[in-house]
Amino acid sequence: MHIKNIFGVGNVQKTADIGVFRYNLGSFKSNSVTVYYFLAYPLKGKKQTAFLKWNSIREMLLEKKQQTLKSRWYWTNKREG
Q1: Where are the chain's structural domains?
Q2: CA within 13 Å, CB half, 40
Q3: How far is CA 42 from CA 11, 18, 24, 34, 45, in A?
Q4: In the predicted model, is pLDDT for residue 48 greater than 90?
Q5: DSSP state, 14?
Q6: How far is CA 15 from the centre of its chain?
Q7: What is the 3-state secondary structure (H, E, C) of 19-66?
């Protein structure tokens, strides 16, 4: 699969849905390859926003800042009203 050749790691699996594949890196730390790629070639719209939020949480987990993660989750998911 082409995406595996781009990143040099991971596995590509075909799903039950026609034309849909799943890319799995197998390790939380090894996904830095994909992070660097999407920082160099940004996604568009909502996907970019979601990626940046996900990456921020990923970095906190890698740094083991669990308390900061809980706080970020609270403020990200707090509903106004």
Answers
A1: 1-41, 44-81
A2: 6
A3: 22, 27, 20, 11, 10
A4: yes
A5: E
A6: 19
A7: CCEEEECCCCHHHHHHHHHHHHCCCCCHHHHHHHHHHHHHHHHHCCCH
Considering the entire predicted model, what is its pTM? 0.64
Which pLDDT value is given to residue 27? 75
DSSP one-letter code for 12: E
pLDDT confidence bin for 31, thresholds 50/70/90: confident
Separation of alpha carbons 7 and 32, rounded Å: 10
Mean pLDDT of 21-35: 83
Residue 28 has pLDDT above 90, yes or no: no
Q: Distance (Å, rounded) from C-alpha 4 to C-alpha 31?
A: 12
